[in-house]
Amino acid sequence: MEDFEKKYRINNIKPKKNRGSFMQLVLVFALIFALLVAIFAISNANEVVIRFPWGNYPISQALVILGSAAIGSVVVLMLGVFSQVKSKIKMWEYQGKIKKLEKELKEVKEQYETVKKAMEAQNAEDMHDEGIPQETDTSS
């Protein structure tokens, strides 16, 4: 099992080295985008009327723009968290399946060795009963 884990790096998965620089780049682009949205919102600061079935609300267009951007960010964040949780659950399921299959493989190997030894013993007994000389290992 340890060989399998080492070969496929199950328990010692290391993060990629360049992930930090990628995240910094994403953060820079996010800040630039937020700055552009803020500039756009400030330049469109007129008052608008938001109409709902239960009433009309006069509000600054800048607040509508910033609020829409904030709600969009929250939705994207929630979808990202949902995706990560789903991936983690799948990973746990696969790790459980791997452990189960490794256990089954170990049992099958043990059964194979038992059957192999029994067959070798039976073949040796059959050869002895028939008077066939057995090979002796002279190498040791």
UniProtKB/TrEMBL annotation:
Residues 44-105 form the Lipopolysaccharide assembly protein A domain. It comes from the Bacteria. Keywords: Cell membrane, Membrane, Transmembrane, Transmembrane helix. Coiled coil: none annotated. GO terms for cellular component: plasma membrane. InterPro entries: LapA_dom (IPR010445). It holds the Pfam family LapA_dom. The chain crosses the membrane at residues 21-42, 62-82. Residues 119-140 are annotated as: Disordered. Residues 119-131 have a biased composition (Basic and acidic residues). PANTHER family: MEMBRANE PROTEIN, MEMBRANE PROTEIN-RELATED. This is DUF1049 domain-containing protein.
